[in-house]
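At this stage, I wrote out one protein, both as residues and as discrete backbone shape codes, and that material follows here.
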Amino acid sequence: MLARLGLPLSLLLLAALASLVIAMGVGSAQISPAQIWQVLMGDSVQGQGDALARTMVIELRLPRALSAFAVGGLLAVAGALMQVLLRNPLADPYVLGLSGGASIGALAAMLGGLGGLAISGSAFGGALLSTFLVFGLAHGSGGWTPSRLLLTGVVVAAGWGAVITLMLALSPAERLPGMLYWLMGDLSYARTPWPPLLLLLATCVVLIPLGRSLNVLARGPQQAAALGVAVRPLEWCIYIAASLLTAAAVTTAGSIGFVGLVVPHMLRLLLGNDQRLILPACALAGGTLLVLADTLARTMIAPEQLPVGVITALLGVPTFLFLLYRSR
């Protein structure tokens, strides 16, 4: 069992490390892997070029790359959890309106002149409100069904989009460009990667022991209850975890789509549906994907930078269509 889990996770870990090295080395000034190693090991600076390399790696590229990795991992794990809950591969935080609610909360905090933890708390509150709203509206006399929940999420997400448009229309002109760029997904100002990284690590540590219960829940709540799984507490755990992960991702980098949709779906085709493997694999693969996408976004038309959300959409749409075609 350990060998079956260890090999794919080891390969994904190597891919993640390689993506971080690429992100630190590629840019307006190229930095060799040897220089990166020297900087990370804290070797003494020999000249002006080495001092510049140290500044670029430690202060600019490494924090941004780690932030991208954390955001990609958070979105992929949140998407995997929502797909287990709904037993639908099309579910993800953006389709269900969680990211829209988080964006509303974060934008409201920004317009109120708040920052730091206030923006994070507002984003989490918005995501949680969106979760309660979706599941409350989808709940009928016979409970909610995955299809009803998915349709309700799409409608709520469209409603949040309209509210975001209204907020942008009423925003001061000097704040509008930054808010628009943030909504398209922007890692330019992500300089504190440790909170989302620690949240990603803590979530995986907590959820991996629940892998067996999640595997049973993926087959349906009635089967899970018959096998002794506490279905309702587990579902609430998924709601809150997905909301928290989405809020942290939106607070760090704005609205970035398709990561939570494509990565879990692709990994299930390759690795099966064991959540003990899928959840950590999503954390590694989602982080790797967003690190590479952000590297491409800041180098494609350098010195100008593209929003990373544009790159994930350009990569995600054809990839998802290919996966749908392959899984017919």
In short: The two ends are 30 Å apart (CA to CA).
